[in-house]
Design brief:
By secondary structure, this protein is an alpha+beta fold. It is 48% helix and 19% strand. The chain is built from six helices and eight strands; from the N terminus they run ββββαβαβαββααα.
Length: 176
């Protein structure tokens, strides 16, 4: 699956939409083997930092995590952020933005037992979605084991159609 490395805004009939800058398109599947080691290292570093500085889930969050299958909800830490963290390494950063994994439209990110949530978006639905990703990490055993499978899904069928994303959406809880 090809993704755009750059987006630009087009206005038609008073409405704007984003379209890919075709001159910067790349095939994620072909670069994934080279990006994986850096992606895993970055994800592990971000997770470790949040484990030290993040907040544990409250009683409601612990119940949501358990309800979506998390085996060790007490290990989860959340970090409220103004924007989701982005890798500094240019190629990794571009790939994350181009695939839609990170960037201005994203409001949650899970890396192992660490959940980043953009301020103003904390809610049951998002927390349950992100906790389901924690469950997926638990099932795989580590960030290093989970991330290659997840990114392979994104590279082959796209973010919306990735099985892990479909599973997380299916486990979203809006009410108690």
């Amino acid at each position: 699956m090809k993704f755009a490395l750059g987006l630009w805004t087009v206005e038609t009939n008073g409405k704007s939409r984003k379209e890919p800058n075709q001159s910067m398109t790349f095939n994620l599947l072909s670069v994934l083997p080279q990006l994986l080691p850096s992606a895993i290292a970055w994800a592990e570093e971000q997770s470790e930092r949040t484990q030290k500085t993040g907040q544990p889930l409250d009683t409601t969050g612990l119940a949501l995590a358990a309800r979506v299958g998390v085996q060790h909800p007490e290990r989860i830490r959340t970090q409220l952020v103004d924007a989701l963290p982005l890798p500094e390494e240019p190629a990794l950063r571009q790939a994350a933005l181009a695939t839609g994994l990170l960037g201005p439209g994203m409001i949650g990110l899970t890396l192992g037992y660490s959940i980043f949530i953009v301020r103003g978006y904390m809610g049951r639905r998002l927390v349950s979605h992100e906790c389901r990703h924690v469950y997926q990490y638990e099932t795989h055993g580590s960030i290093a084991a989970f991330l290659p499978v997840y990114l392979q899904q994104i590279a082959t069928v796209g973010y919306q159609n990735a099985k892990f994303e479909q599973d997380a959406r299916a486990h979203e809880i809006e009410v108690a």
